[in-house]
Amino acid sequence: MDVTETDLPGVGKKHEVDIGGGQQLVVVTHNTGTRELYLKEDDDADSEKLLELSDRLARMVGTILEGAYFQPVESSHVETMLSEGTLLEWYAVENDSPLVGKTLAGANVGQRTGVTVVAMQRDGNVIAGPSPDMQIEASDTLVVIGERENCEQFERLLTGDL
Amino acid sequence: MADLLGIGVLFAAVAAATLVAVWLNKSVIPFYILIGMLLSPSVAGQFSVAGYGLPVVESSEFVELGAELGIVFLLFFLGLEFNLDRLLESWERITRAGTIDLGINFGAGLVLGFALFRDPLAAFLIAGIVYISSSAIITKSLIDLGWIANDEADPMLGTLVFEDLFIAVYLTVAAALVTGGSDVGAAAMSVGVALSFIVALLLLARYGTPWFERALQTTSNEFTVVRAVGITVLISGFALAIGVSEAVAAFFVGMAFAPTTHTHKLESLLEPLRDTFAAVFFFWIGVETDPRLFAGVAGLVAAAIVVTTPTKILSGYLSGRAYDLNPRRSMRVGLGMVTRGEFSLIIAAVALTGAGTSLSTALANAVYSFTVAYVLLMSILGTMLMQYSAPFEQFATARFGTE
């Protein structure tokens, strides 16, 4: 893979990325942080402007392109609003959580907090729709769905505050 | 009108100029000049509506100092964006392209200047005026047209960098010659003072970085701005007081700040300040211009356009070839370098300071109005050539092939 970097005095920097088939992706980073994306069909062609992104947007798009989780599941509090008031949330299970060692049914999550555990992530594998007899282990990540207050309730249960 | 109302009229006028520029999708610089000209005593001052005079902005002390600050900040930014180490990496190609550009255009300018004005100092000033392309307008056009992502941007920006470096030295000599008067000894003396001051500044830029680094060490944006402005304007003002170009001093102060960790912050914080005062500078250029004098220099301007458009296209074309570009892209480099702008006007302002001493008043005024008319037309012609480059490119390909 070939990437060339050029200084553009007074403007910023230019990166040309070989993307195969003779095509080149040209990224112009302005001193202001704005990024311009161009496509060059072949060596001789004129660059065709694809789009322009602000500094913030460019970083966000960059994370997605990089394949990094845009909503990092490691975080103990990441929320996605499904509809008004209903959240899809990720919770990391800490070592000292009172739920460690209990099964989903045994912890009685649904009854005590009103949320539903829709998925579990363990060692990089995602178990969708985990069965009630699955045991919760430390460093699992639980994906739950429920009303905001129920999610908050669940978080207290998980951390032993309840 | 030097009161607040007058300043209000000035800023409202340049604000209106930006609207026109956006509407016509053109660079705003010529419109700043034009609106300044319209509101000057020599245009608006001549008319009255129903017995009331039109609002006139005269060249007050505020306007002149504002314009001077505009020059200082323009050049300060130029210095700030100079990265000497980066520059040295591609120095060989930049020097080759820059030398071609300098040789052809400065040389043609000297001959043209002497033919038009019959005065060696005027010829020297005209050479600088027709040599220096407009970094501001050309860079803006490159971005607007999307050429910035193409190969032709490299020789263009490289040549602009070379020109900017050259103009720093040139302005020093020009300012010294103009203030030095016609006495050869005095002129040599002031050139000597100017050059030693430049060497001192160069040493400061080279070895003063730790000091500049510490000077701006603060978490407050306010303190950063105030300290940077304090240092820059003080050194520039001192330079002017001892007869050295304030623009050049500002350029070196910018260069001194360039290697520090504050560069990026300075750029974003001072940009609005630069743009405000640069607008005042271009406006002031317009105010100082009496369009009636254009008639007297029309022939000279026409001659200059006929000579210096092809010379820039030729030098640009050769620079493109020196960068291993094909004829089509080299032609674009040539067309793109035609625009002249802010630096030519700065030289014209230098010429004006010599009125009555080193240059006769009539000659200084002629050089000045010549430059304003020349820059106005070249900024339009240059951007048009870039916009409608297709037939020129076809010609280059047909004539010189595709490789």
Automatic annotation (TrEMBL), chain A:
Q: Which PROSITE patterns match?
A: RCK_C
Q: Which residues form the RCK C-terminal domain?
A: 76-160
Q: Name one Pfam family in it.
A: KhtT_N
What is the superkingdom listed in this entry's lineage? Answer: Archaea
Supply the InterPro entries for this chain: AAE_transporter, KhtT, KhtT-like_N, RCK_C, RCK_C_sf
Its GO biological process annotations read: potassium ion transport
GO terms assigned for molecular function: monoatomic cation transmembrane transporter activity
Q: Which PANTHER family does the entry mention? A: K(+)_H(+) ANTIPORTER SUBUNIT KHTT
Q: What is this protein called?
A: Potassium transporter TrkA
Q: Origin organism of this chain? A: Haloarcula rubripromontorii
From TrEMBL, chain B:
Which GO terms of the cellular component aspect does the record hold?
membrane
> What region holds the Cation/H+ exchanger transmembrane domain?
12-385
Main localisation, per the record? membrane
GO function terms (MF aspect):
antiporter activity
Give the transmembrane region(s): 6-24, 31-53, 65-84, 96-117, 123-143, 155-178, 184-204, 225-258, 293-314, 335-355, 367-386
Swiss-Prot/TrEMBL keywords: Membrane, Transmembrane, Transmembrane helix, Transport
What membrane topology was assigned to this protein in its record? Multi-pass membrane protein
Tell me where in or outside the cell this protein is found: Membrane
* Pfam families cross-referenced by the UniProt entry: Na_H_Exchanger (PF00999)
Could you tell me which InterPro entries the record lists for this protein?
Answer: Cation/H_exchanger_TM, Na+/solute_symporter_sf
Query: Which top-rank group of organisms is this from?
Result: Archaea
Q: Which GO terms describe its biological process?
A: proton transmembrane transport
The entry assigns this protein to a family as follows: Belongs to the monovalent cation:proton antiporter 2 (CPA2) transporter (TC 2.A.37) family.
Which PANTHER family does the entry link to? K(+)_H(+) ANTIPORTER SUBUNIT KHTU (PTHR42751:SF4), SODIUM/HYDROGEN EXCHANGER FAMILY/TRKA DOMAIN PROTEIN (PTHR42751)
What's the protein called, per UniProt?
Cation:proton antiporter
Q: Which organism is it from?
A: Haloarcula rubripromontorii
